[in-house]
Amino acid sequence: MFKKQVFILTLVSLFTFLSPQKSFAASPGASFRLDPTRRFVFLTLTNLQSVARVSYVLTYETRGVTKGFEGGFRTFGRQRRSVRRQILGTCSSGRCVYHTNPHGFQLDVTFYLKSGGTTTASQTLP
To answer: Is CATH 3.40.50.2300 the right assignment for the domain spanning 26-125?
Structure first.
């Protein structure tokens, strides 16, 4: 009798632990940081497993004028994280001119999910 109870208890325990559990993927996220010289910005996009495509816009002020850039990429289902480096200025023929004292940064990111929905993330820096 005791062996039968142990066997039944073991089966119940196995079914409890081996039953499919709902797992929730972390939401995609975005952040950015400036390099110490304020000549480059590094965009970090995370938790991209459920994302098909990413689109982003970063704006900032320099000498009283709004500047910025936009970009995007497809994840092709293989990326979990992406880091992008972007110059704060312009380059031509191998020479770069950096924007003076960039400030007032605003990052807006749209994640286009594989499920068909979208989610957004934003961040600001002075």
So the answer is: no
